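Changelog-adjacent note: as of this version, every example in the card shows the full chain rather than a window. The one below runs 156 residues end to end.
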Amino acid sequence: YGTYNRDYVMPQPAPLKTALLEPSGILSTIWRRWFHSVGQSGYVDRGDPSAYDWTHADLTEDGTWRDLDLSSIIPETAKLVHLRVIVQDDAASSSLALRENGNSNLHNGNAVRTQAPDIVNEGEVLVKPDKNRKIEYNATNTTWTLINIVVRGWFL
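Full-length structure tokens:
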């Protein structure tokens, strides 16, 4: 048997803030690993494009899934494309949906919606292009006031 030390104090668990947010905390570790993986994946910022890549005049707005060809902008090695999408319509709940080319559902896709009539809404979207550097879009069958899409960058 050992000896008993009455002055011994049991170690206390770290406060929640320390456990989560401090440099050695779990959230800091997760963010550090995420940023490290982003750096390793090779995010390429496109820079400062002088215009939108597509506007509503370039798109077919009929509620049907259509191909959007990114091959003139992104390299063959791009694994994920980062888009900025801006929409406006005179109706609420109109949407521009984007997904990987060849998918059948939108459960793993993205959509930017008009939340109220005649109000601009915008979103940042990540979509996986296919081997031909195409994705799919579906614009609600309505007379859109504004749809602007620009490629902001891509992951290699």
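Structural remarks: The mean pLDDT is 84.
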